[in-house]
């Protein structure tokens, strides 16, 4: 059985997720922990639960989702996995991080490149990988069919979608990606976004003002 734990870190109120199953193997998605206290909160949970961190995965590589990459990678000696299209996005963070008040940002190099042709495994569980560009050029979403869990990053939010005014973003591409990939998931699927509360595919298909039935085109 797949379990999920949510943490909200950094001034961007970014959601960091840990997924794990009965084997206690775990994957950390988008670690936004930057301050010492935030890192302690993450590591204390891992220790208390007796988890074995196996991988570090970025849905995409904007600053708020990668602030804790180096901490997780160095602490747990795990590979950092991203989509190949996110390489320039990740590398640019060290250039602009000081402008956002993160002068102590430590860069972490990717170790493995993943895409929608693969599966992501956690212990006895397997997640589908969906390619959902538009917010970022190599944005990935992760879906676990048995539990109906979808780690959506900054693609689809409760009543909103990811911004597309950053380098590599494109509004129409994001809308098309959401309709093609996310809206084909079961309506009861729980969407765990990069910011804000959880929602469901059914709720967003019906009511999302940007991409749902009531959207204005």
N to C succession of SSEs = EEEHEHHEHEEEEEEEHEEH
Radius of gyration: 16 Å
| Name of the CATH superfamily | Ribonuclease Z/Hydroxyacylglutathione hydrolase-like
State the total count of DSSP E strands: 14
Question: Can you summarize the main beta sheet?
Answer: 6 strands, mixed
* Average pLDDT score: 97
User: What's the number of helices?
Assistant: 6
Provide the fold topology:
Layout: E1 3-9, E2 14-20, E3 25-29, H1 36-49, E4 52-57, H2 63-66, H3 69-76, E5 80-82, H4 87-96, E6 112-113, E7 119-122, E8 125-131, E9 140-144, E10 149-153, E11 156-157, E12 160-161, H5 171-180, E13 190-193, E14 199-200, H6 201-207
Parallel strand pairs: 3-4, 4-5, 5-6, 10-13
Antiparallel strand pairs: 1-2, 2-3, 7-8, 8-9, 9-10, 11-12, 13-14
Protein name: MBL fold metallo-hydrolase
Domain Metallo-beta-lactamase: 13-195
Cofactor: Zn(2+)
How would you describe this structure to a colleague?
With 217 residues, the protein is of the alpha/beta class. Helices cover 24% and strands 28% of the residues. The protein is built from 6 helices and 14 strands. The chain has helices at residues 36-49, 63-66, 69-76, 87-96, 171-180, 201-207, and strands spanning 3-9, 14-20, 25-29, 52-57, 80-82, 112-113, 119-122, 125-131, 140-144, 149-153, 156-157, 160-161, 190-193, 199-200. The strands form 3 sheets. Strands 1-2-3-4-5-6 form a 6-stranded mixed sheet, with helices on one face. A 6-stranded mixed sheet has the order 7-8-9-10-13-14. Strands 11-12 form a two-stranded antiparallel ribbon. Helix 1 (36-49) links the parallel strand 3 (25-29) and strand 4.
